[in-house]
Design a protein that fits this description.
Radius of gyration: 34 Å
GO molecular function: actin binding; structural molecule activity
Oligomer: single chain
Largest sheet: 7 strands, antiparallel
Low-confidence stretches: 145-158, 167-182, 337-361, 513-517
Pfam family, one: Syntrophin_4th
Organism: Piprites chloris (Wing-barred manakin)
Shape: rod-shaped
Helix content: 10-25%
Keywords: Actin-binding, Cytoplasm, Cytoskeleton
Strand content: 35-45%
Family: Belongs to the syntrophin family.
CATH topology of one domain: PH-domain like
């Protein structure tokens, strides 16, 4: 199914916008611009057309013009009147820039100069035109083919209003002249939408933000292909149109990503499947106050969470990731949409983890991923639906990895002794002597009632003794405490999910937020 529509292409340098037509298929976004093409006859180059108009007693030249050098645009034909001189030639179109009048170059002439020249050019006026493919939108040229129109000019002419040249001008001839009409063997021209740029959507990305800022473009965005080719800034007339196109393009990009994942998964073992992947913006924590974002490509595959600068295309690319983290040891958190009743929070309450590190941000749809040794990454996506997919994908990937792994053991110490601490999906927590393998203590997940840590290496785990109902405190010291806490969190959340999967689904923060909006 192909979606088409009219939009504007915004030029940030000139600050002008040009009419374009968008054509969206499943795999490609095509940008089209209008041009005049020769459809029959000898003239294959429709770049310049020279046309002779015979001024008529009623209707004059039968056209109106806009523009001029004072507005940094050429003078263009803005109206063509039905059954009058200009239309009868079959060679002139709305949007044609006038280059010459009776051999005089007018490319840098003002609006008033061209009006004067055309009105005083006699009964036969020869004009050379070239279709202006990038007519600034402020000229408000109609996009359709020439049709019946009325002239609204009055008094002094203005570049932004039509100056009508369907008046008689200074004609010396009062007898009716023969109409301007195309000769049989002369070339025929048509105005058509022509493809000017095609952007493949596979692994493409969309940006609604002004480069390097937190400022959202108003009803506008750009699409960037995998090879970096950009559509430029696509501007839409209404917020609804912008949202519709954004959603349609995002859907097609997501569908293609899904196809790429299926292809990649054919070459991977069942334990190393890609769960989800896609583009995000990562906030770069700089020394200055300006918050910069950079495109990153994330993937959840097998036991790992990958961060790439460019998407992995071949199997070799997976080892070239900028960062690779074990899924059991990362903590996923949604920002700005943080509700106090989800399964992650349940696990947090077990552990006493307070996720309140404050990241002020202008962008909605943000999430962070915290890893071992206190490392964290802060990401932003373009749509709430993408955030919901990332949330669900992280949960699924972590739960699968926990169930696959079954247990994780960490070296730790307590009162000078070297111990091993195991988190086991079936058994819960076990602590044993690293040399003798003697079990020192064992508790189920449900017995963990709280925890506290010093933010560095030491943690206190509070367990309830099933017999005495007393709280027992176990103090341990780890080299990478964050990784261990994240691992405990992942195992508890996975346990909750295995007991009540419906509960997990019902607690999706992002999806709750989307439905409430």
């Amino acid at each position: 199914q192909t979606k088409t529509g009219i939009a504007l292409l915004y030029d940030e340098v000139s600050e002008n916008a040009y009419d374009i037509r968008l054509k969206l298929t499943k795999e490609v976004l095509t940008i089209q611009k209008q041009d005049v093409v020769c459809v029959s006859g000898s003239d294959h180059s429709a770049n310049h057309r020279t046309v002779t108009l015979r001024r008529q007693p009623v209707g004059g030249l039968g056209l109106s013009i806009k523009g001029g050098a004072e507005h940094k645009v050429p003078v263009v034909i803005s109206k063509i009147f039905k059954d009058q001189a200009a239309e009868q030639t079959g060679m002139l179109f709305i949007g044609d820039a006038i280059i010459q009048v009776n051999g005089i170059n007018v490319e840098s002439a003002t609006h008033e100069e061209v009006v004067h020249l055309l009105r005083n050019a006699g009964d036969e006026v020869t004009i050379t035109v070239q279709y202006l493919r990038e007519a600034p939108s402020f000229l408000k040229l109609p996009l359709g083919s020439p049709g019946p129109s009325s002239d609204h000019s009055s008094g002094a002419s203005s570049p932004l209003f039509d100056s009508g040249l369907h008046l008689n001008g200074n004609s010396t001839n009062t007898a009716p002249s023969s109409p301007s009409s195309p000769i049989a063997n002369e070339p025929k021209y048509e105005k058509r939408w022509l493809d000017t740029l095609s952007v493949p959507l596979s692994m493409a990305r969309i940006s609604r933000y002004k480069t390097g800022t937190d400022k959202l473009r108003s009803n506008a965005f750009e699409v960037l292909a995998l090879d970096g080719v950009s559509t430029g800034i696509l501007q839409f007339y209404t917020a609804q149109e912008s949202a519709d196109w954004l959603r349609a393009m995002s859907t097609n990009i997501s569908d293609l990503t899904l196809q790429n994942m299926k292809m990649a998964n054919k070459c991977c073992s069942p334990s190393d499947q890609v769960i989800h992947m896609g583009w995000v913006n990562e906030r770069l924590e700089g020394t200055d106050s300006s918050q910069l974002y950079k495109f990153k490509f994330l993937a959840l595959k097998g036991s790992s969470f990958y961060i790439f600068s460019t998407p992995p295309v071949s199997t070799l690319d997976w080892v070239r990731a900028e960062k690779i983290y074990n899924l059991c040891e990362v903590l996923f958190k949604i920002h700005k949409l943080w509700l106090a009743d989800d399964c992650w929070l349940q696990a947090n309450l077990y552990l006493g983890i307070h996720q309140d590190f404050d990241l002020e941000d202008q962008r909605p749809y943000c999430f962070s991923v915290m890893a071992g040794h206190g490392k964290s990454h802060y990401f932003n996506v373009e749509l709430g639906s993408e955030l919901a997919v990332w949330e669900k994908s992280f949960q699924r990937a972590i739960f699968l990895e926990v169930q696959r792994t079954g247990s994780k053991t960490y070296m730790c110490s307590w009162q000078g002794d070297t111990l091993c601490f195991t988190v086991d999906f079936a058994l819960g927590f076990t602590c044993f002597d690293s040399k003798t393998k003697n079990v020192l203590w064992r508790f189920k997940f449900s017995q963990l009632k709280g925890s506290s840590d010093d933010g560095k290496t030491k943690v206190k785990l509070l367990f309830q003794n099933l017999d005495t109902k007393q709280i027992e405190t176990k103090e341990l010291e780890f080299q990478d405490l964050t990784a261990v806490l994240h691992c405990i969190h992942s195992f508890i959340a996975a346990k909750v999910a295995s007991v009540d999967p419906v509960f997990i689904d019902s607690q999706s923060i992002a999806r709750k937020y989307m439905y409430s909006n």
